[in-house]
Design goal:
This protein is an alpha/beta fold. The protein is about 45% helix and about 15% strand. It has a single domain, classed as Rossmann fold (3-Layer(aba) Sandwich).
């Protein structure tokens, strides 16, 4: 998975998967730029990755602002010379029945999960087109197919699916690939489960374990590498085989 010396922008980096993706790209030789609106978390992650020997720099960005994202991308290109790889890791999930989802909740889901994917992709594409090279990887969630109690989240994650495929078709002749990596059930920080609950959840998986952020990061790094140059518009499920139980694999 050759990403050595590539400039990789991880947008929405301050979460479990974003951190794992940043570390994996860094360990594989990429120069990593982290972007997030969580400035405190960004400083902490940048320090952690630097201490691990990575070439990394953080940019505090309002992920929902077109002008902020465009300015950040310009600054990154000025400093690093280009952006070869973009990995969009934005993720905000809430569990509410549709009757309890307010219009503010709905707009928040769009602003957090979908709008930044569009803004960052749109901003990096001109540079990638100019160089006739680019990798855009969107981290998605298996809930994009629709789940009860997650109407807003499922809707916007379906939007990420459609955006990925549309961009892949539009950019294929420009040497730019656009793919998505779909995460399945995994152990997430901030979610407290008993050992019995964890065992039950793992027992429902064909591989008999829950996923980890590193599982997703390995797949994302492959899609971001030169090894995936003939793959575009595709959805790679990192779900321990659970997608085989339903139309999720279609």
């Amino acid at each position: 998975m050759n990403v050595k010396d590539r400039v990789a922008l991880v947008a929405g980096a301050v979460n479990d998967v974003g951190e794992a993706v940043g570390f994996r790209l860094s360990k594989s030789g990429a120069r990593v730029v982290l972007a997030d609106s969580n400035q405190e978390g960004l400083v902490s992650l940048e320090k952690k990755m630097s201490e691990a020997g990575g070439q990394v720099k953080g940019f505090a960005v309002d992920l929902t602002s077109s002008s902020h994202v465009e300015a950040a991308v310009r600054s990154i290109i000025e400093e690093f010379g280009t952006i070869d790889i973009l990995v969009n890791c934005m993720d905000l999930k809430r569990n509410k029945p549709v009757s309890e989802i307010s219009i503010d909740d709905w707009r928040s889901s769009i602003d957090t999960n979908l709008t930044p994917v569009f803004l960052f992709s749109k901003s990096v594409i001109p540079e990638m087109k100019k160089r006739k090279y680019g990798r855009i990887v969107n981290i998605n969630d298996s809930d994009y197919l629709g789940m009860p109690g997650k109407a807003d989240y499922s809707a916007v994650k379906s939007g990420v699916f459609g955006l990925t495929r549309s961009l892949a078709l539009e950019l294929a002749r420009d040497g730019i690939t656009v793919n998505s990596v779909v995460k399945g059930e995994s152990r997430e920080s901030g979610v407290t489960l008993t050992e019995e609950e964890l065992a039950q959840a793992a027992g429902r998986m064909p591989v008999k374990r829950l996923g980890t952020p590193d599982d997703v990061a390995y797949a994302a790094c492959f899609m971001a590498s030169d090894s995936s140059k003939y793959i575009t518009g595709q959805t790679l499920f990192v779900c321990g085989g659970k997608s085989l139980y339903s139309s999720m694999s279609v």
